[in-house]
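Below is just one:
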Amino acid sequence: MGLLKPAEMQEVEAVASKNPAVKLQLKAEVEAMGALTKAYSVNPPAHLREQILKAAKGNEPPQQEETKAEKSKTNNSTKFWMIAATFLFLVSTGINFRQYQNVEKLNQELSISQIKIAELESETEVMVARYNKLENNYTVLTHPQTTQFVMKGVEGRDPNMRADVYWNAKSKMVYLNIKSMPAAPEGKVYQLWALKDGQPIDMGVLKGAEGLQMQELGRVPGADAFAVTLEPQGGSVNPTLEEMYVYGEPVQV
């Protein structure tokens, strides 16, 4: 690397004066370089050395020795600042690399945090939807104009089968809650019927065999009873009475 400018030397010297560790390291580097130079230096023969000194005294002005000393001092100073600049450059490079690693680590942690936040937001939306559904169910169940129909297994079926219907006289909406019924066989579906004056009214195909959440199945002006039959895939226009599973009339309060 080239020689340092005066301003750069002053900057390095200022850093070294404020940081004892840097100053000691720079001093050690200079001393090591000096020892290396001394170890590989070659002294001239004694008679040749005397001849050179005599020639120097006869031909050179007195200030020659002072000039050489100053030059040597300048060279040592230059070496010192070159080593200092190199050392500080290495230290700065190490610090910058460490900071880069820290920034990369923080970016990775930030990305992970953002993913977790997105997952929590999605879970929160699901929980809010469930809460709203439960709140709506509670409102339906406790509404003074809601009538409950408890459907149980008909003769020849499992008496423990049960599905409840809630019909609201104000909204005319029908809600179904299957509590205990076997899954429909492959190619078959359960279908709900409202019975009014002896006539069946199709209320639609059930979405599942069993579950705690209620299903909205449409509106009907009124009903004397409700029943569920097993029908071919897609449902039927009229109920298959031989495949009736549960039947129920309104609960008397």
Notes: The beta strands are 146-153, 162-168, 173-180, 188-196, 199-205, 215-219, 225-232, 244-248.
